[in-house]
Amino acid sequence: MTVVMPGRGSGNPGPVFSLVMTAPALLTAPDTAAAPAVPAPSRLWTPKRVLVTRSAAERPHGQRVLSRLEAAGVDAIELLPGDRLPSLRGDDDRAAFMAAKDTMALVVPPPSKRKLQPIPPSADFRLDLAEGCPAHCQYCYLAGSLSGPPITRVWADLDEVLEGLDDHVGRGTVTSGTLERGGEGTTFEASCYTDPLAIEHLTGGLSRMVEHFGTHAWPGPVQLRATTKFDDVAGLLVLPHGGRTRLRFSVNATAVDRRFEGATAKVPARLGALAAVAAAGYPVGVTIAPIMPVDGWREQYAELLDGIAAAVPAGHDLTVECITHRFTPGSKETLLDWYPRTKLDMDESRRTTKRGRFGSVKHVYPRETMAELRGWFEREVAERLPGARLLYWT
What's the predicted TM-score (pTM) here? Predict the structure, then answer.
Protein backbone atom coordinates (compact mmCIF):
# COMPACT_ATOMS: atom_id res chain seq x y z
CA MET A 1 0.00 0.00 0.00
CA THR A 2 1.38 3.38 -0.96
CA VAL A 3 0.95 6.02 1.71
CA VAL A 4 1.44 9.69 0.98
CA MET A 5 2.40 11.97 3.86
CA PRO A 6 1.40 15.58 3.21
CA GLY A 7 4.17 18.11 2.96
CA ARG A 8 4.10 21.24 5.05
CA GLY A 9 3.38 24.72 3.82
CA SER A 10 2.86 24.26 0.10
CA GLY A 11 0.26 21.48 0.40
CA ASN A 12 2.31 19.30 -1.98
CA PRO A 13 2.62 15.61 -1.17
CA GLY A 14 5.58 14.64 0.93
CA PRO A 15 7.58 11.43 0.75
CA VAL A 16 5.98 8.17 -0.23
CA PHE A 17 6.63 5.12 1.91
CA SER A 18 5.25 1.67 2.61
CA LEU A 19 3.03 1.10 5.60
CA VAL A 20 2.97 -2.39 7.10
CA MET A 21 0.26 -3.33 9.57
CA THR A 22 -0.86 -6.41 11.38
CA ALA A 23 -3.86 -8.04 9.72
CA PRO A 24 -7.06 -7.84 11.75
CA ALA A 25 -7.95 -10.84 13.88
CA LEU A 26 -10.29 -13.29 12.24
CA LEU A 27 -13.83 -13.33 13.56
CA THR A 28 -14.72 -16.59 15.23
CA ALA A 29 -17.55 -18.53 13.60
CA PRO A 30 -19.55 -21.35 15.14
CA ASP A 31 -17.83 -24.71 14.73
CA THR A 32 -20.88 -26.16 13.02
CA ALA A 33 -21.30 -23.32 10.54
CA ALA A 34 -20.66 -24.08 6.88
CA ALA A 35 -20.75 -21.34 4.30
CA PRO A 36 -23.45 -21.86 1.68
CA ALA A 37 -22.30 -21.59 -1.90
CA VAL A 38 -22.36 -17.99 -3.05
CA PRO A 39 -21.13 -16.53 -6.32
CA ALA A 40 -18.25 -14.11 -6.37
CA PRO A 41 -19.34 -10.48 -5.88
CA SER A 42 -20.40 -8.86 -9.11
CA ARG A 43 -19.08 -5.44 -8.14
CA LEU A 44 -16.48 -4.18 -5.66
CA TRP A 45 -15.68 -0.51 -5.19
CA THR A 46 -12.05 0.60 -5.23
CA PRO A 47 -11.62 4.25 -4.20
CA LYS A 48 -9.05 6.22 -6.16
CA ARG A 49 -8.13 8.29 -3.12
CA VAL A 50 -8.27 7.59 0.60
CA LEU A 51 -7.85 10.33 3.20
CA VAL A 52 -7.05 9.31 6.78
CA THR A 53 -7.14 11.76 9.67
CA ARG A 54 -4.64 11.48 12.48
CA SER A 55 -7.21 10.49 15.12
CA ALA A 56 -8.75 7.85 12.82
CA ALA A 57 -5.37 6.21 12.19
CA GLU A 58 -4.88 5.88 15.96
CA ARG A 59 -8.14 4.02 16.61
CA PRO A 60 -8.26 0.19 16.59
CA HIS A 61 -10.99 0.14 13.95
CA GLY A 62 -9.03 2.66 11.90
CA GLN A 63 -6.05 0.30 12.00
CA ARG A 64 -8.24 -2.58 10.84
CA VAL A 65 -9.57 -0.52 7.95
CA LEU A 66 -6.05 0.41 6.87
CA SER A 67 -5.10 -3.27 6.90
CA ARG A 68 -8.07 -4.11 4.71
CA LEU A 69 -7.21 -1.32 2.30
CA GLU A 70 -3.74 -2.78 2.00
CA ALA A 71 -5.12 -6.28 1.40
CA ALA A 72 -7.49 -4.91 -1.25
CA GLY A 73 -4.62 -3.31 -3.13
CA VAL A 74 -5.91 0.23 -2.63
CA ASP A 75 -3.20 2.76 -3.45
CA ALA A 76 -2.62 6.44 -2.69
CA ILE A 77 -3.50 6.52 1.00
CA GLU A 78 -2.98 10.02 2.42
CA LEU A 79 -2.29 10.19 6.17
CA LEU A 80 -3.24 13.71 7.20
CA PRO A 81 -1.31 15.62 9.88
CA GLY A 82 -4.51 16.57 11.72
CA ASP A 83 -8.22 15.87 11.78
CA ARG A 84 -9.42 18.29 9.10
CA LEU A 85 -10.14 17.02 5.60
CA PRO A 86 -8.86 19.06 2.66
CA SER A 87 -11.37 20.81 0.43
CA LEU A 88 -12.73 18.63 -2.35
CA ARG A 89 -14.54 21.43 -4.13
CA GLY A 90 -13.32 22.57 -7.54
CA ASP A 91 -14.05 24.93 -10.40
CA ASP A 92 -15.77 22.17 -12.36
CA ASP A 93 -18.75 20.96 -10.34
CA ARG A 94 -19.14 17.75 -12.36
CA ALA A 95 -15.46 16.87 -12.02
CA ALA A 96 -15.61 17.64 -8.29
CA PHE A 97 -18.62 15.36 -7.94
CA MET A 98 -16.91 12.45 -9.69
CA ALA A 99 -13.73 12.96 -7.66
CA ALA A 100 -15.74 12.94 -4.44
CA LYS A 101 -17.54 9.74 -5.46
CA ASP A 102 -14.12 8.11 -5.94
CA THR A 103 -12.87 9.23 -2.52
CA MET A 104 -13.08 7.54 0.85
CA ALA A 105 -12.21 9.33 4.10
CA LEU A 106 -11.45 7.52 7.34
CA VAL A 107 -12.35 9.89 10.16
CA VAL A 108 -13.56 10.15 13.75
CA PRO A 109 -16.95 11.90 13.69
CA PRO A 110 -17.85 14.74 16.02
CA PRO A 111 -19.88 13.78 19.12
CA SER A 112 -23.04 15.20 17.54
CA LYS A 113 -22.86 12.50 14.88
CA ARG A 114 -22.81 9.78 17.53
CA LYS A 115 -25.95 10.72 19.44
CA LEU A 116 -28.31 7.88 18.56
CA GLN A 117 -31.54 9.11 17.00
CA PRO A 118 -34.81 7.28 16.24
CA ILE A 119 -35.27 6.42 12.59
CA PRO A 120 -38.96 5.66 11.96
CA PRO A 121 -40.43 3.65 10.38
CA SER A 122 -37.33 1.42 10.23
CA ALA A 123 -35.79 1.15 13.69
CA ASP A 124 -35.48 2.49 17.21
CA PHE A 125 -32.04 3.99 16.64
CA ARG A 126 -29.72 4.95 13.80
CA LEU A 127 -26.30 3.31 14.17
CA ASP A 128 -24.03 4.69 11.46
CA LEU A 129 -20.94 2.95 10.09
CA ALA A 130 -20.33 5.68 7.57
CA GLU A 131 -21.85 8.54 5.64
CA GLY A 132 -22.00 8.47 1.87
CA CYS A 133 -22.16 5.72 -0.71
CA PRO A 134 -20.10 4.84 -3.82
CA ALA A 135 -23.16 3.82 -5.86
CA HIS A 136 -24.77 6.07 -8.49
CA CYS A 137 -28.51 5.77 -7.87
CA GLN A 138 -30.12 8.66 -9.70
CA TYR A 139 -32.87 8.97 -7.08
CA CYS A 140 -30.40 8.87 -4.15
CA TYR A 141 -32.11 10.13 -0.99
CA LEU A 142 -28.74 11.08 0.49
CA ALA A 143 -28.79 14.00 -1.96
CA GLY A 144 -31.24 15.72 0.36
CA SER A 145 -29.67 14.53 3.61
CA LEU A 146 -25.93 15.14 3.42
CA SER A 147 -24.14 18.38 2.62
CA GLY A 148 -20.90 18.98 0.79
CA PRO A 149 -19.12 16.79 -1.77
CA PRO A 150 -20.48 13.21 -1.66
CA ILE A 151 -17.36 11.42 -0.43
CA THR A 152 -17.79 8.25 1.63
CA ARG A 153 -16.76 9.00 5.21
CA VAL A 154 -16.04 5.87 7.28
CA TRP A 155 -16.22 6.29 11.05
CA ALA A 156 -13.14 4.96 12.88
CA ASP A 157 -14.65 4.90 16.40
CA LEU A 158 -16.80 1.79 15.90
CA ASP A 159 -15.47 -0.10 18.93
CA GLU A 160 -16.33 2.70 21.34
CA VAL A 161 -19.82 3.05 19.87
CA LEU A 162 -20.60 -0.65 20.19
CA GLU A 163 -19.47 -0.62 23.82
CA GLY A 164 -22.04 2.06 24.64
CA LEU A 165 -25.16 0.45 23.17
CA ASP A 166 -26.36 -1.38 26.29
CA ASP A 167 -27.77 1.85 27.74
CA HIS A 168 -30.19 2.15 24.81
CA VAL A 169 -31.72 -1.32 25.08
CA GLY A 170 -35.42 -1.10 25.88
CA ARG A 171 -35.57 2.66 25.35
CA GLY A 172 -36.71 2.84 21.74
CA THR A 173 -40.11 3.94 20.49
CA VAL A 174 -40.29 2.54 16.95
CA THR A 175 -40.15 -1.20 17.65
CA SER A 176 -39.42 -1.56 21.38
CA GLY A 177 -42.58 -2.14 23.34
CA THR A 178 -44.90 -1.80 20.34
CA LEU A 179 -47.64 -4.30 19.66
CA GLU A 180 -46.84 -4.62 15.96
CA ARG A 181 -43.05 -5.02 16.12
CA GLY A 182 -42.19 -5.58 19.76
CA GLY A 183 -40.85 -9.04 18.95
CA GLU A 184 -37.90 -7.45 17.16
CA GLY A 185 -36.59 -6.01 20.41
CA THR A 186 -34.56 -2.81 20.39
CA THR A 187 -33.58 -2.25 16.77
CA PHE A 188 -30.48 -0.49 15.44
CA GLU A 189 -30.36 0.55 11.76
CA ALA A 190 -26.86 0.48 10.22
CA SER A 191 -27.71 1.71 6.73
CA CYS A 192 -29.39 5.08 7.01
CA TYR A 193 -26.59 7.14 5.48
CA THR A 194 -24.55 4.49 3.67
CA ASP A 195 -24.71 1.06 2.07
CA PRO A 196 -22.63 -0.97 4.54
CA LEU A 197 -22.07 -3.88 2.16
CA ALA A 198 -20.75 -1.56 -0.56
CA ILE A 199 -17.74 -0.77 1.63
CA GLU A 200 -17.51 -3.96 3.71
CA HIS A 201 -14.54 -5.39 1.80
CA LEU A 202 -12.62 -2.22 2.72
CA THR A 203 -13.81 -1.66 6.29
CA GLY A 204 -15.03 -4.89 7.89
CA GLY A 205 -17.38 -2.71 9.92
CA LEU A 206 -20.55 -4.67 9.21
CA SER A 207 -18.85 -7.95 10.19
CA ARG A 208 -17.69 -6.34 13.42
CA MET A 209 -21.25 -5.25 14.16
CA VAL A 210 -22.76 -8.64 13.31
CA GLU A 211 -20.31 -10.44 15.58
CA HIS A 212 -20.91 -8.01 18.45
CA PHE A 213 -24.69 -8.29 18.20
CA GLY A 214 -24.49 -12.08 17.93
CA THR A 215 -22.16 -12.73 20.87
CA HIS A 216 -22.61 -9.87 23.33
CA ALA A 217 -24.56 -10.45 26.57
CA TRP A 218 -27.32 -7.88 26.04
CA PRO A 219 -29.64 -6.68 28.84
CA GLY A 220 -32.64 -7.36 26.56
CA PRO A 221 -33.62 -8.48 23.06
CA VAL A 222 -31.93 -6.56 20.24
CA GLN A 223 -31.67 -6.61 16.46
CA LEU A 224 -29.19 -5.09 14.04
CA ARG A 225 -30.68 -4.09 10.70
CA ALA A 226 -28.83 -3.40 7.47
CA THR A 227 -29.98 -3.00 3.88
CA THR A 228 -27.92 -3.09 0.70
CA LYS A 229 -27.87 -3.01 -3.10
CA PHE A 230 -24.71 -5.12 -3.23
CA ASP A 231 -23.98 -8.84 -3.12
CA ASP A 232 -20.58 -9.35 -1.44
CA VAL A 233 -21.90 -11.51 1.39
CA ALA A 234 -19.33 -14.33 1.50
CA GLY A 235 -17.57 -12.90 4.55
CA LEU A 236 -20.84 -12.72 6.50
CA LEU A 237 -22.01 -16.29 6.03
CA VAL A 238 -20.05 -17.99 8.83
CA LEU A 239 -20.19 -15.21 11.40
CA PRO A 240 -21.74 -15.96 14.83
CA HIS A 241 -24.78 -13.77 14.14
CA GLY A 242 -27.03 -15.50 16.67
CA GLY A 243 -30.09 -14.56 14.64
CA ARG A 244 -29.76 -10.97 15.85
CA THR A 245 -28.95 -9.35 12.49
CA ARG A 246 -31.57 -8.93 9.78
CA LEU A 247 -29.95 -8.48 6.38
CA ARG A 248 -32.27 -6.81 3.87
CA PHE A 249 -31.77 -6.30 0.17
CA SER A 250 -33.07 -3.24 -1.62
CA VAL A 251 -34.71 -4.49 -4.81
CA ASN A 252 -36.80 -3.01 -7.58
CA ALA A 253 -38.47 -3.52 -10.93
CA THR A 254 -36.14 -4.35 -13.81
CA ALA A 255 -36.72 -0.98 -15.51
CA VAL A 256 -35.78 0.96 -12.36
CA ASP A 257 -32.74 -1.22 -11.67
CA ARG A 258 -31.38 -0.84 -15.20
CA ARG A 259 -32.07 2.88 -15.65
CA PHE A 260 -31.41 4.43 -12.27
CA GLU A 261 -29.21 2.18 -10.08
CA GLY A 262 -25.70 2.65 -11.43
CA ALA A 263 -22.58 1.05 -9.93
CA THR A 264 -24.59 -1.47 -7.89
CA ALA A 265 -25.01 -5.22 -8.07
CA LYS A 266 -28.00 -5.92 -10.31
CA VAL A 267 -31.18 -7.29 -8.76
CA PRO A 268 -30.62 -10.95 -9.80
CA ALA A 269 -27.24 -10.85 -8.02
CA ARG A 270 -28.86 -9.33 -4.93
CA LEU A 271 -31.43 -12.13 -4.91
CA GLY A 272 -28.61 -14.67 -5.07
CA ALA A 273 -27.01 -13.00 -2.05
CA LEU A 274 -30.39 -12.98 -0.29
CA ALA A 275 -30.64 -16.74 -0.80
CA ALA A 276 -27.13 -17.25 0.59
CA VAL A 277 -27.66 -15.28 3.81
CA ALA A 278 -31.04 -16.94 4.37
CA ALA A 279 -29.33 -20.32 4.04
CA ALA A 280 -26.78 -19.15 6.62
CA GLY A 281 -29.60 -18.67 9.13
CA TYR A 282 -29.96 -14.90 9.08
CA PRO A 283 -33.43 -13.41 9.35
CA VAL A 284 -33.79 -11.56 6.07
CA GLY A 285 -35.82 -8.89 4.38
CA VAL A 286 -36.44 -7.01 1.18
CA THR A 287 -36.85 -3.28 0.86
CA ILE A 288 -38.80 -2.60 -2.32
CA ALA A 289 -37.75 0.95 -3.00
CA PRO A 290 -38.32 3.34 -4.49
CA ILE A 291 -41.50 1.97 -6.01
CA MET A 292 -42.35 3.68 -9.30
CA PRO A 293 -45.40 3.18 -11.56
CA VAL A 294 -43.25 2.60 -14.66
CA ASP A 295 -44.73 1.10 -17.81
CA GLY A 296 -45.69 -2.49 -17.05
CA TRP A 297 -45.09 -2.01 -13.34
CA ARG A 298 -47.51 -4.74 -12.27
CA GLU A 299 -45.79 -7.37 -14.38
CA GLN A 300 -42.30 -6.24 -13.39
CA TYR A 301 -43.01 -6.14 -9.67
CA ALA A 302 -44.86 -9.47 -9.86
CA GLU A 303 -41.72 -10.98 -11.42
CA LEU A 304 -39.66 -9.44 -8.63
CA LEU A 305 -41.89 -10.91 -5.91
CA ASP A 306 -41.66 -14.34 -7.54
CA GLY A 307 -37.86 -14.01 -7.59
CA ILE A 308 -37.87 -13.23 -3.87
CA ALA A 309 -40.09 -16.26 -3.21
CA ALA A 310 -37.65 -18.47 -5.10
CA ALA A 311 -34.69 -17.12 -3.10
CA VAL A 312 -36.11 -17.51 0.42
CA PRO A 313 -37.32 -20.90 1.69
CA ALA A 314 -40.96 -21.12 2.73
CA GLY A 315 -41.36 -20.44 6.43
CA HIS A 316 -38.10 -18.48 6.74
CA ASP A 317 -38.20 -15.21 8.71
CA LEU A 318 -38.78 -12.69 5.90
CA THR A 319 -39.90 -9.06 6.13
CA VAL A 320 -41.00 -6.66 3.41
CA GLU A 321 -40.72 -2.87 3.47
CA CYS A 322 -42.34 -0.78 0.72
CA ILE A 323 -41.23 2.78 0.00
CA THR A 324 -42.60 4.83 -2.90
CA HIS A 325 -40.51 7.37 -4.75
CA ARG A 326 -40.52 10.92 -3.41
CA PHE A 327 -38.24 13.92 -3.62
CA THR A 328 -37.75 17.34 -2.06
CA PRO A 329 -36.93 20.63 -3.80
CA GLY A 330 -33.40 20.43 -2.44
CA SER A 331 -32.81 16.82 -3.44
CA LYS A 332 -34.12 17.49 -6.94
CA GLU A 333 -31.69 20.36 -7.40
CA THR A 334 -28.78 18.27 -6.15
CA LEU A 335 -29.70 15.21 -8.23
CA LEU A 336 -29.97 17.27 -11.40
CA ASP A 337 -26.51 18.66 -10.67
CA TRP A 338 -25.17 15.14 -10.15
CA TYR A 339 -27.02 13.47 -13.02
CA PRO A 340 -28.01 16.19 -15.51
CA ARG A 341 -29.15 13.67 -18.15
CA THR A 342 -31.36 11.63 -15.85
CA LYS A 343 -34.75 10.44 -17.09
CA LEU A 344 -36.07 10.20 -13.54
CA ASP A 345 -39.55 11.73 -13.29
CA MET A 346 -39.34 14.68 -10.91
CA ASP A 347 -42.13 16.79 -12.38
CA GLU A 348 -43.84 18.53 -9.46
CA SER A 349 -47.05 18.98 -11.49
CA ARG A 350 -47.47 15.19 -11.47
CA ARG A 351 -47.10 14.94 -7.70
CA THR A 352 -48.84 15.88 -4.49
CA THR A 353 -47.06 18.12 -1.98
CA LYS A 354 -46.68 16.69 1.51
CA ARG A 355 -45.59 19.01 4.32
CA GLY A 356 -43.83 17.92 7.49
CA ARG A 357 -44.23 19.18 11.04
CA PHE A 358 -41.57 21.86 10.61
CA GLY A 359 -42.51 23.03 7.12
CA SER A 360 -40.46 20.53 5.13
CA VAL A 361 -41.79 19.69 1.68
CA LYS A 362 -41.90 16.35 -0.13
CA HIS A 363 -43.34 15.62 -3.54
CA VAL A 364 -45.12 12.26 -3.48
CA TYR A 365 -47.44 10.45 -5.88
CA PRO A 366 -51.08 11.61 -5.95
CA ARG A 367 -53.54 9.92 -3.63
CA GLU A 368 -55.13 7.84 -6.40
CA THR A 369 -51.77 6.51 -7.59
CA MET A 370 -50.66 5.74 -4.04
CA ALA A 371 -53.89 3.88 -3.32
CA GLU A 372 -53.54 1.82 -6.49
CA LEU A 373 -49.92 0.96 -5.74
CA ARG A 374 -50.55 0.12 -2.11
CA GLY A 375 -53.58 -2.04 -2.81
CA TRP A 376 -51.70 -4.02 -5.45
CA PHE A 377 -48.61 -4.58 -3.29
CA GLU A 378 -50.57 -5.60 -0.21
CA ARG A 379 -52.52 -8.19 -2.21
CA GLU A 380 -49.58 -9.52 -4.18
CA VAL A 381 -47.15 -9.70 -1.25
CA ALA A 382 -49.72 -11.71 0.73
CA GLU A 383 -50.28 -14.07 -2.21
CA ARG A 384 -46.75 -14.48 -3.56
CA LEU A 385 -44.83 -14.27 -0.26
CA PRO A 386 -47.11 -16.05 2.22
CA GLY A 387 -45.70 -15.84 5.72
CA ALA A 388 -43.70 -12.70 5.03
CA ARG A 389 -44.41 -9.71 7.27
CA LEU A 390 -45.13 -6.40 5.55
CA LEU A 391 -43.63 -3.97 8.08
CA TYR A 392 -44.82 -0.71 6.57
CA TRP A 393 -45.83 1.17 3.46
CA THR A 394 -44.74 4.74 2.90
Answer: 0.90
